[in-house]
Design a protein that fits this description.
alpha/beta; Rossmann fold; 2 domains; nine-stranded mixed sheet
Length: 384
């Protein structure tokens, strides 16, 4: 590991140990060449501010602030600033990049002097249910100090392409080898093994982005189909989930176990709602399902239609009748003819390649900022 590589200090609204997704794929790769400090949203469960530090992977530390619930916003910001400063001092962090996943952490990090600022925009957070009113304003402020900005999908890139001078589309990718294990006939997990076929499966966070009415309608239309849903329930009530004999909620599962569940599904489904929260999403599960060799039915999410629907790799359906018809088509699919098309497409993408492109842009941003700082210092000296 080169001593010249600045550390990464990551500010994120996502829990590291919750769901393995884009930040984990990228940052574990960065951690192979530099130190990474992942600073999460606070938990309000203590009498005095404290910072919990855990190892997330080799060379990567997860910092979780714990704050008193009685703190008002001003007190919270001061406490978070102090905890972060202490973390950097205790670990000898001097040369570092600030990497933001949320603009909500800008207020307590403005005083820091990083080598560069990265904004990795996964979602249009301001459109999510319960988004703070200040989020849009803070996003604008963050972009003003951002040196390089990435988006997790093409539709998000198109929505923001005029808002930042150094914006790059870096769609989320797939660990093909990991999910391709599902093609080899894995042992059916115990909580799924008793379910008859056909099985339609989904994994991911269960929140306002799912079309619960569509799930229920499909289950009602084909009571002989088993709908297997894997993932944690977030921001919605468990009581809002449709409860039918052929809908099975198996809860959150480790990333390492997902191929085992996929191996036992006949069709993968992505029943996303068409609302503000899904307008710009680019689901990482699309290429993951395909790498597992599962035919996929999805609602018409823009970043699924383009390119997966246009290439005939995913069937698109928005109504219950259309979704059922598309799933029936998947059940009779000639997989021997379909899979080579899938593999040809997936050969063009990988997390390694996406990470390498982002690393190159990051290194360039650090270099350019260093050059500008040197030039500014020289002008200041001449002025004296």
């Amino acid at each position: 590991m080169s001593a010249r590589q600045p550390d990464l200090v990551v500010l994120s609204h996502l829990r590291w140990f919750f769901v393995f997704q884009r930040p984990q794929h990228l940052l574990t790769r960065f951690a192979k060449e530099r130190r990474v400090f992942y600073f999460e949203e606070p938990v309000f469960d203590v009498d005095e501010p404290t910072l919990e530090l855990k190892e997330g992977s080799a060379n990567l530390w997860v910092a979780t602030p714990h704050l008193p619930a009685r703190y008002d916003e001003s007190m919270r910001q001061r406490a978070l600033s102090g905890l972060l400063d202490t973390l950097l001092v205790d670990h000898g962090v001097e040369s570092f990049v600030l990497w933001y996943y949320t603009p909500m952490m800008l207020p307590f990090t403005r005083h820091l002097r990083p080598c560069a600022v990265v904004n990795d925009c996964m979602d249009e957070l301001s459109m999510f249910h319960g988004a703070p009113p200040s989020l849009a304003h803070l996003e604008t402020a963050l972009m003003q100090c951002t040196d390089v900005m990435f988006t997790g999908g093409m539709s998000l890139y198109e929505a923001k392409r005029t808002k930042h001078r150094n914006l790059h589309a870096m769609p989320s990718s797939v660990d093909v080898a990991h999910f391709a294990q599902a093609r080899t006939g894995r042992r059916d997990p115990e909580d799924q093994a008793h379910l008859p076929h056909p099985r339609l499966g989904f994994f991911g966070v269960l929140d306002e982005r799912l079309d619960l009415a569509l799930i229920e309608a499909v289950a009602l239309a084909r009571p002989q189909w088993q709908l297997v849903i894997v993932g944690p329930v977030v921001k919605i009530s468990e009581s809002s989930l449709p409860r039918l004999a052929n809908i099975h909620y198996l809860g959150a599962k480790p990333y390492t176990d997902l191929p085992n569940y996929l191996s036992g599904w006949d069709v993968a489904m992505m029943p996303f709602a068409k609302n503000d929260a899904t307008r710009y999403i680019s689901p990482t599960k699309t290429p993951e399902f395909l790498a597992a060799g599962r035919p996929v039915v999805s609602t018409s999410i823009t970043d699924v239609v383009r390119p997966y629907g246009e290439h005939g790799l995913v069937r698109i359906a928005d109504t219950a009748d259309a979704f059922v018809a598309a799933a029936e088509s998947c059940l009779s699919l000639d997989r021997a003819a379909w899979l080579p098309k899938v593999d040809t497409f997936l050969n063009r993408t990988s997390w390694d390649a996406t990470w390498a492109r982002m690393r190159d842009q990051l290194d360039l941003a650090v270099q350019l900022k260093h050059t500008r700082t040197q030039a500014s210092d020289s002008v200041a000296e001449l002025a004296l």
